[in-house]
Amino acid sequence: xxxxxxxxxxxxxxxxxxxxxxxxxxxxxxxxxxxxxxxxxxxxxxxxxxxxxxxxxxxxxxxxxxxxxxxxxxxxxxxxxxxxxxxxxxxxxxxxxxxxxxxxxxxxxxxxxxxxxxxxxxxxxxxxxxxxxxxxxxxxxxxxxxxxxxxxxxxxxxxxxxxxxxxxxx
Length: 170
Description:
There is one protein chain. The chain is mainly alpha-helical. Helices cover 56% and strands 7% of the residues. It has 6 helices and 2 strands, in the order ααβααβαα. Strands 1-2 form a two-stranded antiparallel ribbon. The protein is globular and about 50 Å long.
């Protein structure tokens, strides 16, 4: 019962943080967080996730610039302009550029089953996406357990090829 209460306190007190300090995070802490993520349940136990830890530097700057450009294009196409556009771009840039590190959670279908029909292909991808989301949730809980702030950002979903290119991913 004590373990359950500890968990419910931890899960109930976790909240997204949108302001971060530049303090470095010790490599052993990052390792513990990612090991916790790898303990998430996954479809067929295939663990279809890959984690890219992005510190400060040229790769981060390229990623942020690419995402900013994409967001500006999308918002402009939606009719957002002037001060409203500038505010949204500034907020996004701060969320991506300020933290000591980012963890990009990636979906990898390499080890998942392959089917000839669209129905099962689609189901397999959905299972993999759910698995990756569970791993992301574990990251958020583990970071909170370590006393760190964290926030789930979906910006890469709107520009996956930009992320791949900026970070030199396969």
